[in-house]
Amino acid sequence: MYLILLGLPGAGKGTQAALIAQAARIVHITSGELFRENIRKQTELGREAQPFVEQGKLVPDELTVGMLLDRISQPDAVKGFVLDGFPRNVDQAKALDEALAGNGKTIDMALYIEVSTDELVRRLSGRWNCGKCGAVYHEESRPPKVSGACDRCSGQLYQREDDRPDVVRTRLKVNVKEMEPLLQYYRSGCKLYEVNGELGVDAVKDDLLEAMSRGQEVR
Ligand code: AP5
Ligand code: MG
User: What span, in angstroms and rounded, lies between the C-alpha atoms of 214 and 165?
Assistant: First the structure.
């Protein structure tokens, strides 16, 4: 299956993509994490992307599309993937479709996790990430068993630089502007499934898995 998870910053894309990838046995690919890894390693791509990521702005398509298309061409993505954070605008969506079509493939579904702005701000301000395996926690709704340590790998938890309130405001503004045209793009291709992201993590996961099995029946 070739899946896309859509949602505003903090909607739960990373949380749900990890669960779906495990359930469907496909690889989870996060554009944001690819950028953060390149920034940590200070690659040329990382140095170019860094100011955009730090300010909460979209990294230009010239950098983003190439990075993503390269990642999905790797052997572990051949049989399927769930994309988290890409595409983020219609041009990226078209570039993805064209690249897949060149290999006789197509996106099966775009799953949109809808969450209100107040809840997004609450989620981002309490989020902690594992620096080792990327697992996501929240100090109220999904606390780790031991404060500051990952349940899965005992890695140290950290708060993302771009979760500062001023950067969160920019991220929300930038992403809201691109979201409706992107939703319309997948709606017009009959590939869009929307779920209520305000529910708990397990309930959202069940709704996404249900939408995936309904989508498979239709196809
Ligand atoms: P990216 O890393 O993708 O950030 P984002 O889109 O802002 O999304 P987040 O990762 O912040 O949120 P999420 O939806 O994954 O939520 P999570 O599961 O963590 O991108 C970072 C930057 O990279 C961008 O700003 C941009 O600069 C650049 N970039 C990336 N892709 C790009 C692209 N395609 N084009 C251009 N630039 C790009 O959950 C959030 C919190 O909520 C957690 O604490 C979690 O525990 C909690 N939570 C999750 N689900 C629930 C629930 N159901 N109930 C209660 N709490 C929940
Ligand atoms: Mg994420």
Answer: 38
